[in-house]
Amino acid sequence: MSTFRYSGNSFYVNDERIQILSGAIHYFRVVPEYWEDRLLKLKACGLNTVETYVPWNLHEPTKGQFHFDGIANLVRFVELAGQLGLHVIVRPSPYICAEWEFGGLPSWLLADSDMRLRCYHKPFLDHVDDYYDVLLPMLKPLLCTQGGPIIAMQIENEYGSYGNDKKYLNYLKDAMIRRGMDVLLFTSDGAEDAMLQGGMVDGVLATVNFGSRAAESFDKLREYQPDAPFMCMEYWNGWFDHWREEHHTRSAADAANVLDDMLRLGASVNFYMFHGGTNFGFWNGANGHTEDSYEPTVTSYDYDSPLSENGEPTDKFFAIRDVIAKYVPLQPLELPAPVPKKAYGKVALTETALLSANLDRISTAIHTAYPEPMEKLGQDYGFIQYDTFISGPRPKDELFIQDLRDRALVFLDGKLAGTLDRCEPDTKIEFEVPAEGLRISVLVENMGRVNYGPYMKDRKGITEGVRFGRQFLSEWTTYPLPLNDLSALAYTPDIQQGVPAFFRGSFTVDQLADTFISLEGWTKGVVFINGFNLGRHWNIGPQKTLYVPGPILKTGDNEIVILELYGTNEPAVTFVDQPELG
């Protein structure tokens, strides 16, 4: 057993002074087979600590049903870090941001129309307590006070950027202490007056987050906390990407220089990120800084970090190690053997299953008077289709979807009439209704709930209603499409284009290796390999390839399924051995 504490301007493990040199690796963005590889590389870079968030929505996807296996095996990740001689910082706040879906909050919270988030609202806190009653007892044996590697835990995340409810923050602090979390507790906020005033908690260490101007940020922290060590809990040495923009990069020299500034001041630091990983499945979040803005994050969480998305050391890795070596004696660099990569070549997808012909196979119809959002229907992620009939004749008018979240393909009698997107408010769909009427189908994609800022109450689907002109349309049949089980799809050898369809093919693997799928010629959709949801593709960029970790493949035949919403130049993909991010 040991203690981690601070006295004056220094941290101590027991009575030995320590400078925390940490890096963020999110276990939930890396397949478990590669956790050891990434942790060994972190240690080889000269770091002594690993930090991770804990996403509530991954671990309690349905109220009262908990998941801690596979990629969600937090305990195994922490134990492994400890076995490798690393300290661990855990950030199990109800909210984590992290460019993760809904900032880690479970979507089922939004089924309650009266729910208030991240504040002293008893229904919200009751759910937090239920979650902590399961999570925190699992972490208790892993605390340093119990002989484990966890030295510190966060009580909330950048709360000063959201609110100033100190009663709420103190409730979280006490909730952890009551459940035996007797390690150092901390907060992290931007180095600004309002953020520190809103996010700090009495008796809890305050840390700051920034990407540059270290001395200025620490000077601001000192104004509020004069007698404690400096720590940058998130050193943003890279950045993440949204769809529709360029891939973000930062030079290794610039990132290393800012690190040098911090270490020269005697500060501790946590690299956010040291290894970004991947937003597999539908786990990406989105930014929405204003009521009308919406920026979904891409599938890759490469973050231009010291380890690439597939775990390879970058120039930034070596530049950072050189800086650390100026302050800490390092052993000669020893890295694990490189993870093999392979270009498996071109694979034809020879069968299709039209979404419209398979709705009843992969969904159960729900009938409601008006469209309901996903959360009200018990759905979390994926797609949802709404069908209704409009009588005719009617003159040409506009179809309005009020509060669309997030992107809708509109079909009239099965033919695509257009796409509406909350990011493109000027797009219009207008049509006449013939005497015999029209069948209207609206396929809505949840592109990821907002994970940061004041507009996080981001319900998905059609959240208000659909109008033709001034008239709201009623009597809807709805098909939830979370796409978590595609085994019932009925494929045909006919390749059909221009409407949402699943394309299927197979390829043979003789040697398991990492690879990347080039989706040149495809438009937009989701990719599955052997039933594993790799994530979204979209030709709008910047991401051009999807990372395929070797452990999701198998020796022999492998299945690839692509949900393509619009069409492809050729029903084939190419497996390459290098990513293309922008």
Automatic annotation (TrEMBL):
Pfam families found in the cross-reference section: BetaGal_ABD_1 (PF21317), BetaGal_gal-bd (PF21467), Glyco_hydro_35 (PF01301)
InterPro entries the record matches: B-gal_1-like (IPR026283), BetaGal1-like_ABD1 (IPR048912), BetaGal_gal-bd (IPR048913), Galactose-bd-like_sf (IPR008979), GH (IPR017853), Gly_Hdrlase_35_cat (IPR031330), Glyco_hydro_35_CS (IPR019801), Glycoside_Hdrlase_35 (IPR001944)
Entry's Gene Ontology BP terms: carbohydrate metabolic process
All residue ranges annotated as the Glycoside hydrolase 35 catalytic domain in the record: 10-326
Family: Belongs to the glycosyl hydrolase 35 family.
Active site, renumbered: 158 (proton donor), 234 (nucleophile)
Record keywords: Glycosidase, Hydrolase
Domain Beta-galactosidase galactose-binding: 500-558
Annotated source species: Paenibacillus dendrobii
Annotated ranges, domain Beta-galactosidase 1-like first all-beta: 371-482
UniProt name for this protein: Beta-galactosidase
GO molecular-function terms, A-Z: beta-galactosidase activity
